[in-house]
Specification:
Layout: H1 2-17, H2 27-39, H3 45-70, H4 76-97, H5 106-129, H6 139-154, H7 159-190, H8 196-210
Helix pairs in contact: 1-5, 1-7, 1-8, 2-3, 3-5, 4-5, 4-8, 6-7
Length: 211
């Protein structure tokens, strides 16, 4: 649930503060880019780069996880630490280097790609380190599974399995919605300083993993 709050907050804050960039819902950038091209609006560099950057970081995260596993180190904590570093970079660039720059500036592009990298690491670690846990950043699939499981419960088909799946999925959906709400409120009040919210929560997630 905590990771879902982080994803929801990061996605919302970056969408509002970094020129409409989606960081967790990465395919949204493809939709916006296509719409801009069709309507004659200029292509935004961050939309163009987000998908290949996301894919590359997914690949590198998996490679790192394999290395960690080979030396007997569980990958969760180091991957959470890497995610935290990317979020810290995004916050630092946005607030201290890019807060007064144009949305199309290099600083804003680097800030956006740092957030994309953080969400790529989170998407990967959720699949690598957790078993039978829904995605913490892609809610369309989670909502689909949740509604289908509710249907199973209503019609009393495979009740126990459907109940267990629904109970795993609901906190993830709720966490993402909460993160979106908190991110929007904080961004409206504090601008890009609001990136301190998902960054702080990522630190909390790392500390919990250390316990």
């Amino acid at each position: 649930m905590l990771l879902s709050v982080i994803a929801g907050a990061t996605d919302t804050i970056c969408f509002l503060g970094l020129n409409g960039l989606f960081t967790a819902h990465i395919t949204g950038n493809v939709v916006v880019l296509a719409a801009n091209l069709v309507t004659g609006k200029p292509a935004v560099a961050s939309y163009l780069l987000s998908v290949p950057v996301f894919m590359f970081v997914l690949y590198m995260t998996r490679m790192l996880a394999i290395r960690f596993e080979r030396i007997g180190l569980p990958p969760l904590r180091p991957l959470l630490f890497i995610q935290l570093l990317f979020l810290v970079a995004c916050l630092e660039i946005s607030v201290f280097d890019g807060s007064r720059l144009h949305p199309q500036s290099v600083a804003m592009l680097l800030a956006g790609m740092s957030a994309v990298c953080a969400m790529a690491v989170q998407n990967a670690l959720a699949q690598i380190a957790f078993k039978k846990v829904p995605s913490t950043a892609v809610m369309t699939t989670n909502v689909t599974h949740f509604v289908l499981d509710l249907t199973e419960l209503v019609h009393a088909r495979d009740y126990a399995a459907a109940r267990d799946r629904a109970l795993r999925t609901l906190p993830v959906i709720a966490g993402f919605v909460l993160g979106c709400a908190l991110g929007a409120i904080y961004q409206a009040a504090a601008g890009l300083w609001s990136l301190s919210l998902p960054t702080s929560l990522a630190l909390v997630a790392l500390l919990i993993a250390e316990m």
